[in-house]
From TrEMBL:
One of its GO terms (cellular component) is membrane. This is Nucleobase-ascorbate transporter 11. The keyword Transmembrane applies. Keywords: Membrane, Transmembrane, Transmembrane helix. GO terms for molecular function: transmembrane transporter activity. Its main location: membrane. Residues 1-74, 109-132, 178-223 are annotated as: Disordered. Belongs to the nucleobase:cation symporter-2 (NCS2) (TC 2.A.40) family. Residues 53-70 have a biased composition (Polar residues). Signal peptide: none annotated. Pfam families: Xan_ur_permease (PF00860). It comes from Rhamnella rubrinervis.
Amino acid sequence: MNAGSSSVSLDKAERGKKGGGKLGSVLSRIDPFVPRTDHNPRELRSWAKRTGFVSTSFSGDRGTSANEKNGSAGFDLEQSLGNRGGGSSPKIEIDPVLGRTRPNRRFEIEPASGSENGGRRIENDGVLGSRDGAVLGENQGRRFGDEHVLEVRNEGRKVDLNGNGKVNDSVNESVNRIGNANGNGVGVAAGNPVTEKRRDDGKTETDMEMNLHPDGEEPAFGEWRGPSGMKCGLRENPGVVPLMYYGLQHYLSLAGSIIFIPLIIVPAMGGTDKDTATVISTMLLVSGVTTILHSYFGTRLPLVQGSSFVYLAPALVIINAREYRNLTEHKFRHIMRELQGAIIVGSIFQSLLGFSGLMTLFLRLINPVVVAPTVAAVGLAFFSYGFPQAGSCVEISIPLILLVLIFTLYLRGISIFGHHLFRIYAVPLSVMIVWTYAFFLTAGGAYDYKGCSPDIPSSNILTDACRKHAYTMKHCRTDVSNAWRTAAWVRVPYLLQWGIPIFHLRTSLIMIVVSLVASVDSVGTYHTTSVLINSKPPTPGIVSRGIALEGFCSILAGFWGTGTGSTTLTENVHTIKITKVASRRAVEIGAFLLIIFSFIGKIGAILASIPLALAAAILCFIWALILALGLSTLQYSQTACFRNITIVGVSLFLGLSIPAYFQQYQPESSLILPSYLLPYAAASNGPVHTGNKQLDFALNAIMSLNMVVTLLVAFILDNTVPGNRQERGVYIWSSREEIRSDPSAVADYSLPRKVSKCLCWAKCLRV
């Protein structure tokens, strides 16, 4: 609205007041609203956009000082819209429709004691309206800003955001919740003056942009629930055939995270190609079973459970223990049973952490500033393994790394038949193309050396010339694996297939600490996923339920013998974003297909024959993606804040440097270990000597793990260094009342009725 029409409205409001006319008579003489045609309502500038801060509602904090209330960093945007229980109004006025601060209009909004609709009474010393806003509607209402009209009626709220007479239903639902949170009112109180400085483009510096999605989607800010841009929503069921397609699409994009861990740990444990194929089949089965369990009884978010890289580094530490280095007979089975026992104990601790309700207390201390460096350290932990392994065959690894980068970055916008194939299937497409290329290199004799055979183990090679090429043949050739010849067509992985688990205190202590890291990782994934699919954030009870079930799923992984625990895959967030599929049913059908594939032994055999250099090359990309996903969690805090920059930087540096100090104590028999496994041998040779060998092993192992040290440093600093809620980016979790008052949110997170009745004793785990 231009300045002329605004002044006319104010003059009419003044005449109506002086003449003693009623509110209705004043409103009836207000000129019709004429929207501006040169304004895009999505182009909103904000402190939240500049800093990356994400919140779920707006309010002032009665307990803060005057400086904090008036300072630029003092806007407490994280609590409810107003003081629901009464009390003083917030001091900073924020437009909930535009998402920007408004200048002081010098009127107060107070609860109207006799109002039939529980609305707000507006006092302005007899003056109704202001420079930018006026009251509209049959009973009450307010126009927010120059372009947007909010009308409030008895029968419901209707919002016209564009001035064209069309109603945005999704925004109406959000405005209803905003009104209900403030006593069915629509006002936000004004307080101290906030100066609006005009820039050359006509916009104000105090405008607050709430477009939190870089792809231009509607903001899922707090109580708002705009379109999420998903092809398939959380509870949508487009049919069996589309669900099967979406499910396969979801798991193909996660193929690298699910199947490549056995290619690392089984050879390090002394296992054969047949053992590798069996472990891969077991991982497919456990991933399918645990994903279905989590979808029905966990948080019920569309998250895939699988063998996480969080457990890979501690597994390598246990594998490279001194007493296992000289084992020759049944080495693989013995180490696998040791891993099984440690995973079971650590998972029991994680499950108890969730079922007991202690996780709800722990959540108060976990913030994005803690989660971000911890998850990033999971990816950084394998820098000594990634390219040193991939570099053994650069003619395969470098083309693969380049190809996956070209697909994900340069060709991500290309659509074929309406599908962004290069973005969604970047990993499987790259692997298939380079694998075929490696097959032609092998068939063409690129790795044939005179008098050398790839079928002879390197330990049996006598000539120096062949010994020099044994490493290259093992990592580059596509025909060195005999898994296809030895694997059965049909094999069902069963519990305790490797034998009875072995329990030791030293390995159990390691996995207990690692289970805490896995829980912190999952907490960040839960929150990010709920925001991504435009759902209410889960309650602390729902988060505890998810952590408890993850612990139970890891117990199953321990009994089945996957070599690692089962937890929520961090890469799942990226998969949901690029595939635009958040359907719970699609994830369940994909998990069911994984279970079927696990029974076909030849599938595991094919995957086990992937050259090690190729697997290491694709893992370089996956670990880099985990690093980036971890750091992206900082968007929920003030990323430019010196406090956060320092905490994250110090945490990451010490998380790499302190383990490097422990890893410099090389094993006495270092020649029997490859160079890329030496960092994981510190547990037996570290500097800690307490006199108790079990405790020495555990402490040296824990302090040599990058993610554990990073979590410890970030956790202590973030919870001891002073900082307000915006700086820390405190995760906003929904309350039970908010979930129960929202039917869609209840359907998102509530358990099946029979299961809910069984958990009637555990109030901390229910919606």
